Amino acid sequence: MTTSAFYPIGIPGTPWGPTEVAAWRARQDRKRSYADEVQGRIEALQAHFDVTEYGRLDYAPEHYPLYVVRSRQWDETLPTMLVTGGVHGYETSGVHGALQFLEKDAARYAGRINLLCVPCVSPWGYERIHRWNAEALDPNRNFREHSPAQESAALWGLLAPLRATAHMHIDLHETTDSDESEFRPALAARDGKPFEPGTIPDGFYLCADSAQPEPAFQQAVIAAVAKVTHIAPADPDGTIIGSPVVAHGVIEYDCRKLGLCAGITDARYRTTTEVYPDSPRATPAQCNDAQAAAIVAAIDYALGGGGRTV
């Protein structure tokens, strides 16, 4: 069904210009602190990891340092595993699940892998609990060379040297009720298109890269997360968010064509997680646990069961 859902900015059927983007940005209030909730926890990891800035977001008068956490003893003979969170700043468990993994689980892989983790790709969006950046761009549709999105360009540059050598990349996301109430209507308004209502999956699922799906890898992650929280069932038409379900809890996207984070590298094993924090069957702690469990399962599979053995 297509509808002309009301959105308070712009003229229906007309894409936004700079005036509408400025009006939208003026409505975005700061709701939480990146420095207090994220940056401080990242800096505390310096006792065990190399923590460095890989870029800064410049949204004057605000500026945000972007942090990467790396294995202290980087060894080119070991497989490189990538973890990214907070590409969409409002997807809270992506950020805090990555931090939880670094604080509680990452030490077990010392000397076995090269770990590179970016817990919060989009701090401006994190503070405003928003999907887009300050220019009304979705970072997770803009991972490409010469990206117009600062967040995407910075991460692209960071991962460029690892594009051909990364072994695994897991990108942590959420699907929330606000996708349907705010972000999809805003997208339709921004692009001057009709709003097409969708559905919100109740549970965890994965988005594999159709160019390199690795079904057994995806199912290993699903099996691990199923011990923590429930897996999203398919809709009656056999889809999740409109995409065919190819296996239990798994859909596929062409990540590189769509400019998605998981398509930045040529890693053999790559996936995007999605949890549902608004479910009555899940808590924020469960969502964080699910993300951390997904990371552990992804690394373990890539290291051993079907992946590269070290």
Automatic annotation (TrEMBL):
Annotated Peptidase M14 domain residues: 30-310
Pfam families per UniProt: DUF2817
Domain of life, per lineage: Bacteria
Database matches in InterPro entries: DUF2817 (IPR021259), Peptidase_M14 (IPR000834)
Family: Belongs to the peptidase M14 family.
Stated name of the protein: M14 family metallocarboxypeptidase
Protein source organism: Dyella agri
